[in-house]
Amino acid sequence: MTARNISRFWEWGRKIICVGRNYADHAKELKNAIPTEPILFLKPPSAYVREGSSILVPRYSNNLHHEVELGVVIGKGGTAIPESAAMEHVAGYALCLDMTARDIQDVCKSKGLPWTRAKAFNTSCPVKRLHLPDDFLIPYLISYISEFITLEEGDLILTGTPKGVSAVQEHDQLQAGIQDVVTMSFRVDRQEK
Ligand SMILES: CC(=O)CC(=O)C(=O)O
Ligand SMILES: [Mg+2]
């Protein structure tokens, strides 16, 4: 069985699995060590936000950053998927932002705590559908993740940010994109309640 068409489940996203420090230039940018294996963290479905709705700065953060990332949408679930079969599980791609409360992440890192409040808050994953040819890194990530997290139809994998993250402010209108392929635009507001 091959992956189902992305349009069937695009409107109801499931869990979001994010890869951290996938790119050495971003690890250097934040003065992080370059890991030997992918670092993974999760965002819940409540993190999704689509164009027309705002990105909300959490009340507890004063340094919200954007990270522009390629997202891989899973169209067929599986556990312990071999790299050779990984692309059969891909339904399509998405342009994504991994919104990060960097001040909170820095505190979590210094205390050895999980990054949940920094990375998994409501509206922390703006997305837009994207058409792309297949990428060589993707089979490895699908195989690696599915060893210990069963992938389900509608899951999204964020593949990590290249360098170039920076802070955003409330009332900003964010434009993110891949040159000549796709752009998306989101207003930034502060969370009210
Ligand atoms: C240091 C980070 O925030 C890791 C991350 O999300 C990435 O894309 O890399
Ligand atoms: Mg990221």
UniProtKB/TrEMBL annotation:
Its EC number is 3.7.1.5, 4.1.1.112, 5.3.2.2. It catalyses: a 3-acylpyruvate + H2O = a carboxylate + pyruvate + H(+); oxaloacetate = enol-oxaloacetate; oxaloacetate + H(+) = pyruvate + CO2; acetylpyruvate + H2O = acetate + pyruvate + H(+). GO terms for molecular function: acetylpyruvate hydrolase activity; acylpyruvate hydrolase activity; metal ion binding; oxaloacetate decarboxylase activity; oxaloacetate tautomerase activity. GO terms for cellular component: mitochondrion. It comes from the Eukaryota. Keywords: Metal-binding. InterPro entries: Fumarylacetoacetase-like_C, Fumarylacetoacetase_C_sf. The keyword Metal-binding applies. Residues 15-127, 138-188 form the Fumarylacetoacetase-like C-terminal domain. Gene3D superfamilies: Fumarylacetoacetase-like, C-terminal domain. Belongs to the FAH family. This is Oxaloacetate tautomerase FAHD1, mitochondrial.
